[in-house]
Design brief:
With 261 residues, the chain is an alpha/beta fold. It is built from ten helices and eight strands.
């Protein structure tokens, strides 16, 4: 690459925030299977223990809500999945908002350190999540408090600065014609950052997100928080780490995604 990276595009759920989305998807389906849908439960492969983190990562994570709901129902062989998708998606949405408002989430410290590092290096940053709930998280996370607690001093960290306010661009939750693994969301992020795709890199935790980045000609950094490093690498990630602290940030301005180790 003749020029280094000038922009970083972050997914939110599973990358920046340990969100209750997975819990909400799992519990919403359990409520339905043990309640309104109990009559069809024996015709599916669902059980209380079957909706594992691996199933979530493979079938649901990174997809828009309706697409994720349908994918989960198809995974468990739920009859009449097309007709049941809206009910499931709505149940999940109600549950996740309740969990967010109850403060049942936290930011990943390694991700916040990476956001601060790339901004300090002069890069522009964007949040690009399929979730319409991303803003609820980003507004509640205080980047100034985090920096102070960890002894990180940057001129751009002003009193009261939220994680949302630290981004140059936020396109989370928009209704794109095609969801991940189509690259539209990340190409839009690069465009609104004012950068060509090849000058950006994407930070993702989902296979569909890695595929979307690569389909758009954007470098992909995979963060394996669910014991899925092999799957992210197989999807085409340029680098896979289990902690974003392992990324050699000094090399980013040279256009290289490499580990410190």
């Amino acid at each position: 690459m003749p020029e280094g990276f000038a922009g970083a595009i972050f997914d939110v759920d599973g990358v920046l925030v340990d969100s209750p989305h997975e819990q909400a998807w799992r519990e919403a389906l359990r409520e339905l299977m043990e309640g309104d849908w109990s009559d069809i439960r024996d015709r599916t492969t669902w059980s209380p223990d079957a909706f594992t983190p691996q199933v979530y990562q493979r079938a649901v994570s990174g997809r828009p809500r309706m697409s994720g709901a349908r994918a989960a129902l198809d995974h468990f062989g739920v009859p009449d999945a097309a007709e049941r998708t809206i009910v499931y998606a709505d149940r999940k949405q109600t549950m996740v908002v309740d969990l967010i408002e109850a403060g049942r989430f936290e930011a990943y410290p390694d991700a916040l350190r990476l956001v601060l590092s790339v901004r300090a290096a002069g890069m522009r940053v964007a949040a690009a999540s399929s979730s319409k709930n991303a803003g609820l998280f980003l507004r509640r996370i205080r980047l100034d408090t985090f920096a102070a607690e960890h002894g990180l001093e940057h001129d751009f960290v002003t009193p009261g600065l939220s994680l949302l306010e630290s981004f140059d661009v936020d396109i989370s939750g928009r209704d794109f014609a095609q969801g991940k693994p189509h690259p539209e969301i990340f190409l839009t992020g690069a465009q609104e950052l004012g950068l060509p795709p090849e000058r950006c890199f994407v930070v993702e935790d989902a296979v569909s997100g890695i595929q979307a980045a690569r389909a758009g000609g954007i470098a992909a950094l995979g963060i394996a928080r669910a014991d899925d490093a092999q799957a992210l690498a197989g999807a085409g990630a340029d680098l896979v780490v289990t902690s974003l602290d392992d990324v050699d940030t000094d090399q980013l301005t040279q256009g290289r995604l490499v580990s410190r180790h």
